[in-house]
Amino acid sequence: MLTTDPAGTARFRDRRRRVADEDLAGRLRELGQLSTDVRRSVVRMIDGAQLGHIGGDLSVTDILVTLFGGVLAVDPEKPRDPDRDRFILSKGHCAAALYATLAHSGFFPLSELSTFMAPLSPLNGHPNRRKVPGVETNTGPLGHGFPVAVGCALAAKVAGRSYRTFVVLGDGELQEGSNWEAAMTAAHYDLASLTAVVDRNRLQQGARTEETKRLEPLADKWASFGWEVRGADGHDHGQLLSALRPSTTGRPVAVVADTVKGKGVSFIEDRVEWHHKVPNAAQVQAALEELSR
């Protein structure tokens, strides 16, 4: 198991204080810089490993950064605190973005990111709760993480605990029927402490989601299953902070976050081949330069 980075933890706490105390413009600056740092780390990790899912990693970055930078009640020094908020990345193939966010939040040293997908590295292609602090459950097979999140939220309700549970799903992942069973169960038990965020980039491996299996009207589907539904620009930290606030209806919350696959790197954005394509050396340099502007 990787261990906490004290310097990173201190930076995380300072950032969280600034996000809490500053005006909106200051909060957005903090979260925007963290998103840039995470994206640059993702590009380097995938370049080093020559493996990964760069399009989805860059798509989900702002959602992860908003959660860890401004919403989740978590402490890197106490990753198993029983009162912590729970976060599950159901689209587990985008582990690089989660690892980079955790490292920039002090859960383990940034230097470990260079081991991404190396033999015997804790940072393998899908998150492992036994190896990486901040990972609640192993994910990878699509449609598995959301039901676990429902279980976490139901456990909190049964035990009378106040922690919240958040789960991020890919939009292509919603073609798995287990997700809709989970959604129905969460609404049945009025799991108001549960928030599901859909990374709605409209692309999946090999094609657009609507060509593969039509999801729209997606918001209406969540509402018909008994959820409080909110929309947001998934790259606007202010909109995400608002959308991730607690339930106002006593029902679980679904946030449909409109995103761009490959966000931040122009030649990757909204291109289906970058689901797991690896950039060459010139493309890596161009991406890092673009992410520095």
The coarse overall form would be globular
Number of helices: 10
Give the CA-CA distance, first to last residue: 36 Å
Q: Report the average pLDDT across residues.
A: 97
What's this, in brief?
It contains 10 helices and 7 strands. It is α/β, with parallel strands linked by helices.
Describe it for me?
This protein is of the alpha/beta class and 293 residues long. It contains ten helices and seven strands. It has helices at 6-21, 24-49, 54-70, 95-104, 145-159, 177-188, 209-212, 218-224, 237-243, 281-290; strands at residues 86-89, 165-170, 194-200, 203-204, 207-208, 228-233, 253-258. The strands form two sheets. It has a five-stranded parallel beta sheet with strand order 1-2-3-7-6, sandwiched between helices. Helix 6 links the parallel strand 2 (165-170) and strand 3. Helix 2 packs antiparallel against helix 3 (54-70), helix 2 (24-49) crosses helix 4 (95-104) and helix 2 runs antiparallel to helix 10.
Name the descriptors.
293 residues; alpha/beta; five-stranded parallel beta sheet; 7 strands; 11% strand; globular
Question: Topology, please?
Answer:
Elements: H1 6-21, H2 24-49, H3 54-70, E1 86-89, H4 95-104, H5 145-159, E2 165-170, H6 177-188, E3 194-200, E4 203-204, E5 207-208, H7 209-212, H8 218-224, E6 228-233, H9 237-243, E7 253-258, H10 281-290
Parallel strand pairs: 1-2, 2-3, 3-7, 6-7
Antiparallel strand pairs: 4-5
Helix pairs in contact: 1-2, 2-3, 2-4, 2-10, 3-4, 5-6
